[in-house]
Amino acid sequence: MISFSHDPEAGTLYGYFTDLEAGQAVDELEYPASLLLNSAGRVIGVRLDLDDEITLNQLELALEHNEVRLDMQYGYLYARIADEAAARVVPLESPALIDLDEEDRLLGFDVAVPADLRTPERLERLAPHMLALEEAAPSGLERRSGGQHGDGDSTSVTRVGFVALVGKPNVGKSTLLNELLGQKVAIVSRRPQTTRVPLRGILNRPDAQVIFIDTPGIHEPHHRLGQFMVELARRAIPDADVVCMMVDISMPPTSLDIKIATMLRRVRVPRLLVLNKIDRPAKEGSHLEAYRALATWDMEIAISALRGTGLTTLVDEIITRLPYGELLYATDQVADQTEQHLVAELVREKVLHFTDQEVPHSVAVEVEEWQEKEQHTYIRLTINVEKESQKGIVIGAGGEMLKRIGSTARHDIEQALGRSVYLDLWVKARPNWRNDPSSLNWLGFRLKDWK
Ligand code: GDP
Ligand code: MG
Question: For residue 367, what are the domain limits?
Fold first, then answer.
């Protein structure tokens, strides 16, 4: 049975998955949380909205309890008493603080509950599960101190929001992000469809925090992975405060541009038309009118992502359309993807770069092992290809190709991580993984990871 305790002074409700000993909690995470109420309005538990950063192993202690349930589809962890059904889910304003032990297992959580929801009456159903505070958390759980996580007073003047950057492959979305963020966060290639999952890049200015979602190219689905990518791009849009559709102004619109623009017509947030590659002479005259006619646009902005032309205007126009709000990320954070994901993407970029047309996009790179050592970070990765012949190409004569991939990737990775890295690269042939749903899962392309 899970236990709770209530600290009326701090306005906090604690939930424990295990008996705590002092000092057991060594780390802490924050996730959105909601209170679960029964039909009589009594609190019967808490829902934690986890994401895929959390592994099942970490939930070991939590899931030992019958009344704790994980909804895999949404990543919701329901911690409630007995089998009582929740009639209402009340989202809480501040995130839950979740305590982890040395093995990274979830020990418990605390949530800040508004005064009207923690009256004795509201909490009466939890009473049999309540422990006195001293009893429950000798000193293991940190008390929440006022609930402030941001860095102070600047929050009310900042504009904060999400920007979906959509456009068919190869129009320059990743180039723009890299240019804006001054660091490699998205991978760039001359070949379409290099960006596999939306990467989030964060642009910080004193007056704003802009979170870009670099969606994979919206394109005609040919196989499962393709469908998946279209779906991902579609999902990025509802989350956005501003949508930028990027096009290549040096070429006329194609059916794909039309398709994307049509999809965007339903979007309710501001739509900006970003005309990229103005540094290139346009083929067959100007295409401006043709792009303009694709939808109604809030604004058109002409840029060259490659040369850096027009980017200040673009960013200003985006920012004036974002809502005011509190910072969502620490200001020193560039990308919210995990380092592992970034490392895998950098290796993948090198494989595509050096093998040119010989190895198709079916290559997927996985981080198998990651160890922080005294002198360096040890990273073991597997490069997954579809055929033995491709494996041969990636390895190259005498391992020459793999060495080249490794040393150039290592260079970029060291720059990105800011420390020395030992890369241990392996190549595996896995036939047909692209059409095999279990293998998509296995590779971590799960939709909810990237919503
Ligand atoms: P994405 O598929 O939309 O992410 O496109 P990428 O950023 O990978 O860019 C595709 C190609 O277009 C790369 O070769 C870029 O160097 C090139 N590119 C991007 N922006 C510009 C630009 O402003 N001018 C020119 N001439 N090329 C560009
Ligand atoms: Mg890209």
Answer: 339-449
Cα(170)–Cα(173) distance, integer angstroms:
7
Q: Sign of torsion, CA 318 320 325 327?
A: positive
The C-alpha atoms of residue 451 and residue 235 are separated, in whole angstroms, by 6
Q: Is 279 in the pocket of ligand 1 (CB under 6 A)?
A: yes
Q: How many CB atoms lie within 10 A of CB 266?
A: 8
| CB of 276 closer than 6 angstroms to any ligand 1 atom | yes
Q: Ligand 1, residue 309: give the atom nearest the CA.
A: 23
At 400, which CATH number?
3.30.300.20
Pocket lining: 201 vs ligand 1, CB cutoff 6 Å: no
What does the pLDDT look like over 145-180, one tens digit per residue?
333 333 334 345 789 888 988 888 789 887 888 788
State how far the Cα of 239 lies from the Cα of 23, in Å rounded to an integer. Answer: 39
Q: State whether 36 and 138 are in the same domain.
A: yes
Position 151 in a domain: no
Range with the poorest average pLDDT among 188-192, 345-349, 357-361, 378-382: 188-192
How many whole angstroms from 176 Cα to the centroid of ligand 2?
9
Is residue 150 situated within a structural domain? no
Contacts 24+ apart (CB under 8 A), 433-441: 433/362, 433/364, 433/384, 433/386, 434/223, 434/224, 434/225, 434/362, 434/386, 435/223, 435/224, 437/224, 440/224, 440/225, 440/228
pLDDT in tens, 249-295: 999 998 888 878 887 877 778 999 999 999 998 777 789 999 999 99
Same-domain pairing of 313 and 356: no
CATH value at residue 165: 3.40.50.300
State the Cα–Cα distance between residues 24 and 16, nearest whole angstrom: 12
pLDDT of residue 12: 87
How many domains are contained in the chain? 3
**265 and 223, same structural domain?**
yes
Distances (CA, A) of 176 to 65, 201, 276: 48, 11, 9
Q: How far is ligand 1, taken at its centre, from the CA of residue 188, in Å?
A: 7
Q: Is 196 in the pocket of ligand 1 (CB under 6 A)?
A: no
Instruction: Look at residue 215 and tell me whether its pLDDT is greater than 80.
Output: no
Sheet architecture: strand order including 88-91: 68-71, 76-80, 43-49, 33-37, 88-91
Residue nearest to atom 19 of ligand 1 (CA): 172
**pLDDT for res 101:** 86
Q: Is 248 exposed, middle or buried (0-12, 13-18, 19+ CB in 10 A)?
A: buried
On whether residue 222 sits in a domain, the answer given is yes
